[in-house]
Design a protein that fits this description.
Layout lengths: L2 H23 L3 H16 L2
Helix pairs in contact: 1-2
Length: 46
C-alpha cells in the first residue's frame, strides 16, 4: 500500500473510531452498528 493511501486509511479509521465512540456514549446503537460495519469494510480491504 502506498504511503498516502495508507495515511488516508489510518485517518479514516481514526475518524470512524471517534464517531463510534460518540454514538456509543450517546446510546445510538443503530448508528454505532452502521459505523462498525464501515470499519469492518475498511479494515477488510487493507
Amino acid at each position: 500500500m502506498a504511503m498516502p493511501q495508507r495515511d488516508d486509511t489510518i485517518e479514516a479509521i481514526k475518524r470512524l473510531d471517534a464517531l463510534l465512540e460518540y454514538a456509543v456514549m450517546h446510546g445510538d446503537e443503530e448508528e454505532a452498528e452502521r459505523i462498525r460495519e464501515e470499519l469492518r469494510k475498511l479494515t477488510e480491504s487493507v
